[in-house]
Every structure is written in C-alpha cells, then in structure tokens.
Amino acid sequence: MSDVRQHADDIHDQFSDHIDVSVDDVEDRLTTLVDEYKVPIDEARRSVTNHYLEEAGLDREDLAGGSSEAAKIEDVDEPEQWIDITAKVIELWEPRSDSVAQVGLLGDPTGTIKFTKWAKSELPTLDEGGVYELRNVVTDEYEGRYSVKLNSTTVIEELDEELEVGDDTSVIEGALVDMQSGSGLIKRCPKEDCTRVLQNGRCNEHGEVEGEFDLRIKAVVDDGLDAHEVIFDKDATENLTGISLEEAKDMAMDALDTTVVADEIRNLVVGTYYRIEGPTFGRYVLADDVEELDGPADAEQLLIKARSM
Ligand SMILES: [Zn+2]
C-alpha cells in the first residue's frame, strides 16, 4: 500500500462513523496536496483531517487516538504506523535542525526508541525523566532503525508514575572505523558519584580537582548499514588492547604525555572487525561482550568473487 493510501485509510477510519466519505475521496484530497502543491505528507494529512473535522462538526479531541493503537516499543517494526505509547524520556539530544523542537530517546519496559518532535507541531515540552502517554505518534524507519515522530495531531499527557525502562541489548558486527576524542588514558573527577571526565584538569561541576586515571574507548563501529557509537570501559579496553591501566600510566609517564596511549590504542583497534554485545545507553552501546572477528562476515564471498573476475 502506498504511503498516501495508508494515510487515507487511517483518516477514513477516523471519520467513517461520523460522515459518509470513501477512502478514494480522502486519497484524492491527499494526492492533490502532495503531488500538485508539494505539501509534505504530515502536513497534508493534518489539512485533510481538518477539512473532515469541519465537515463532521467535530473537535480534534473527539478523534484523538481514533485510529492509533496502544503499542510497546519492541513491537515497532513497520514505518508509517499510527500508535499510542506510554514511555519515559530517557535522554534529550541537541536538535540539529530548526524544524525539530525536541529529539531524544524514549523507553518503556520493552526497549528504547528515538523520537522527534517537530517544531511546527507546537506541542508541550517533554522533560528528561518524565513519563508520558503519547497518543497518535507515527513510526518511521531509516536504514533499518525505527523512530517515532510527534506531530500536530499527537496528544501528550504527563503521567504521575514511574516507568521501568528495559535495556535492549544490541549486537553489532562490524569494523571499528574511528576512535573519538576522550579515548585512551583519561582522568575522572574523584568526587562522590561524579565520575565526570576532566577537561584540562577541570570538572564541569566541581572545578579543578585531582583526577583519577581511567581507561576507555569511545569508538565508531560500522556494520555496513549504520555507524554505531560504542563505549569500552576500563575492563573492555584492557581486554581489547592488552594494555592495562597501570601500563597505560607508565606509557604516559615515560612520554610525559597521555596522548601516546590513545595513539597506541588507535593503532591496535581501528580497522579491526568486532562482534560487540551490550546494553544501549542513550546513543551509546556499552561493550559488555566483545569478540574479535577475522573480517566482514562476507569477506570470503567477496574474495571468491574478486578471484573469479
Ligand atoms: Zn566532578
């Protein structure tokens, strides 16, 4: 079914109890807006919905959730579905575009999913840590990853309850293609429960402190479809590189420079293939279980192909 037809179907479902309208009529209106006036489908849907609201003498609230179904995050496996979810805002990220009011990560007991709230939807602001019932959000898919979009038909209700968020374990197989800054031998703030990484000996919260050394890798792993940001903690980094925290400190001491550690680690890990398993935390996957691979899974196939040419 085409996108437009799917939207027409949804709108028709919302109004079929109220007015006499066919799916074809709805589709014609949407098609005119999308094809002739180049209106984005979300906007076209809103406009057409408004038209039928007026015709039926209804308010938007009368329809809220009309065609969408309550869903769990783990069940989202199709784009362009209108659903209701109850979720906690785990994290908010900096929007990269003016058209986006808020972007971040939602979680429920079954998993996590990215959300985008359009600026033009003029919806209330979601707070980090808040639990909300979100009615009439639409699912989207990009390169195999799902997200939900909050649009002008979305109804947001803040709930006064806690919601346990399930960690959804990711498995990534791919090449470690880049190591980000903040990797290698780092210093953390020693204040209780702070553990922030120091920048030039300073903690963002506590100012200048005597830091404690730690080892970590912030890496980008490319599985051929998508780039994933992966964090290796001290243990994972020691296992991956064979360099212990004590050895890293000695290396830095000898060179009077901590960057030698990052350089050494980069040489060891960049370009290597790994199978990484671990929980998703915000936009990062924490590398709990790491296995080095010989190469891409289909490398042999590629070689056979190359030889036959
Ligand atoms: Zn601190």
UniProtKB/TrEMBL annotation:
Record bears the keyword Nucleotide-binding: yes
GO molecular function: DNA binding; helicase activity
InterPro entries per record: NA-bd_OB-fold (IPR012340), SOSS-B (IPR051231)
Record key words, sorted: ATP-binding, DNA-binding, Helicase, Hydrolase, Nucleotide-binding
Biological process, per Gene Ontology: double-strand break repair via homologous recombination; response to ionizing radiation
Highest taxon above the source species: Archaea
SUPFAM superfamilies linked: Nucleic acid-binding proteins
Coiled-coil residue spans: none
Protein name: OB-fold tRNA/helicase-type nucleic acid binding-protein
Organism of origin: Natronococcus amylolyticus DSM 10524
